[in-house]
Amino acid sequence: MKKQKSSERRSFGNDIMKSPLAVLVIAIAGILLGLIFIFSQSENAPITRSEAVSYSGEFEEYEVWRNYRTIHFKDGSTYDVYAHTETQAFQDMMRSIEKGTMLYILVNPNNEYVVEIRTDTEELLNFETSQKEIDAYDNGYIAIGIVACFGGVFLIWYNENIPHQRKHVKTYRVLTHMGSDQA
After folding, report:
1. 54 φ, ψ to 5°?
2. C-alpha to C-alpha distance for 104 and 53, rounded to whole angstroms
3. How far is residue 170 from each of residues 120, 162, 167, 173, 174, measured CA to CA in Å?
4. What is the DSSP letter of 121?
5. What is the pTM of this model?
6. Residue partners of 40: CB distance under 8 A and separation at least 6
7. Measured between alpha carbons, how far is 124 from 87 in angstroms, rounded to an integer?
8. What angle do CA 174, 179, 182 make, to 5 degrees?
9. Do 28 and 36 contact (CB within 8 A), yes or no?
10. How far apart are CA 118 and CA 125, in angstroms?
11. Using CA atoms, how far apart are residues 115 and 125, in angstroms rounded to an integer?
């Protein structure tokens, strides 16, 4: 298999940008992707304390697996902790809790993430802090969505305002006149 030259790759990209249909399809895909990024974050919007669902139960286990954090209770209930609200200190505290310890949690009903965790003696996850961290993290995805939407709008503008003609490179042939006696 031959390795493509960078000029061939650039030519393929240029060919795509010269096709009005291809530009339009890419623009629409960018706008749709941007809207998905923006609207998928609406479930993570901060809530008030009165909107949160409360639960209390005896702690069984705190499970950490890749980007998932789950609190297991003795009655079989499980609740997820938003991974980006968790600090190493919080993870260490959760792992040091003895089984059977009573936990009092508040859950965001929109996304079902735990936003506050308390025991009888201490607060392990603060309601306001976790809400701010979730919101701050999600603002990054919203920014990506906005950039994708603007990129799509730009491509639509480009599609309408930039001519899609192939550039013809002028070539000159150097003609030499050779006499009949020259071989």
Report:
1. -100, 150
2. 11
3. 83, 21, 9, 10, 13
4. S
5. 0.66
6. 141
7. 11
8. 100
9. no
10. 7
11. 7
Dihedral angle, C-alpha 18, 22, 26, 32, nearest 10 °: 140
The predicted structure's pLDDT at residue 52:
94
Total length of the chain:
183
Phi, psi dihedrals of residue 129, rounded to the nearest 5°: -65, -45
**Residue 112, Ramachandran bin (φ over 0: left; ψ between -120 and 50: alpha; else beta):** left
pLDDT of amino acid 2: 57
CB burial string 87-114: b at 16+ within 10 A, e below:
eeebeebbeebeeeeebebbbbeebebb
Residue 143 corresponds to which tokens in the numbers above? 């920014």
19: left (phi over 0), alpha (psi -120 to 50) or beta: beta
Half-sphere exposure in the Cβ direction for 47 (13 Å, CA): 19
- CA nearest to 108, candidates 61, 59, 45, 64: 45
Look-up: residue for tokens 């030259």?
A: 5
pLDDT (tens digit per residue) in 51-64? 999 999 999 999 98
